[in-house]
């Protein structure tokens, strides 16, 4: 797996911290995975990306970015697309970003699905409306909600 990023939210130190978090999370399976933090602003990094096979390429999404950082992020995305490499964008503060990266890995690597998959959020509503499909009832319900 390769981890890439641009700007203050995706600089090399952030991607290296994410790599460390990923290694800790998959320690039992770490022998089966190579996780690399690649500096996408280094032209040799893209050559390295193209010459290897990756289970996943994670791009660290920018939460708040300057115009320069957005331009770098766009250049990275463009280069990945030109190379024909698929990638997933991971957002969030460190802990949330790590959880999102682990969830993405679980989706992409079946051998880790049970280890990494986060629990689904609890269902907030469970009642007859989920299977009813009565348009008049839905209209009354939502009209009442809008009037609050």
What percentage of residues falls in helices of 4 or more residues?
40-55%
Distance between the termini: 49 Å
H-E string: EHEHEHEHHHH
Q: Identify the quaternary structure here.
A: single chain
CATH topology: Rossmann fold
Spans of at least 5 consecutive residues whose pLDDT stays below 50 are: none
Number of domain units: 1
Which strand order do you get reading across the main beta sheet? 2-1-3-4
| Class per helix and strand makeup | alpha/beta
Secondary structure tally: strands: 4
Shape: elongated
Largest sheet properties: 4 strands, parallel
Over all CA atoms, what is the radius of gyration?
20 Å
Overall mean pLDDT: 75
Write down the CATH class: Alpha Beta
Strand content: 5-15%
The CATH level-2 architecture is identified as 3-Layer(aba) Sandwich
The number of helical segments is: 7
Descriptive tags:
7 helices, Rossmann fold, four-stranded parallel beta sheet, single chain, 148 residues, alpha/beta
Report on this model:
- The protein has 148 residues and is an alpha/beta fold.
- The chain has a single domain, classed as Rossmann fold.
- Helices cover 50% and strands 9% of the residues.
- The chain has seven helices and four strands.
- It has helices spanning 12-25, 43-51, 67-82, 94-108, 113-116, 129-132, 135-146; strands spanning 2-5, 36-37, 57-60, 88-90.
- Strands 2-1-3-4 form a four-stranded parallel sheet, with helices on both faces.
- The longest helix is centred in the middle third of the chain and has 16 residues, at 67-82.
């Amino acid at each position: 797996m390769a981890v890439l990023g641009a700007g203050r939210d995706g600089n090399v130190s952030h991607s290296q911290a994410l790599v460390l978090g990923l290694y800790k999370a998959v320690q039992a399976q770490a022998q089966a995975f190579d996780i690399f933090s690649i500096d996408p602003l280094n032209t040799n990094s893209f050559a390295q990306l193209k010459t290897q096979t990756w289970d996943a390429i994670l791009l660290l999404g920018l939460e708040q970015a300057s115009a320069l950082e957005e331009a770098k992020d766009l250049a990275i995305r463009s280069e990945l697309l030109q190379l024909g490499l698929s990638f997933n964008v991971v957002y969030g503060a460190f802990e949330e970003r790590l959880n999102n990266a682990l969830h993405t890995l679980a989706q992409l690597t079946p051998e880790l699905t049970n280890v990494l998959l986060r629990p689904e959020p609890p269902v907030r509503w469970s009642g007859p409306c989920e299977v009813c499909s009565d348009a008049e009832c839905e209209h009354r319900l939502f009209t009442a909600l809008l009037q609050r």
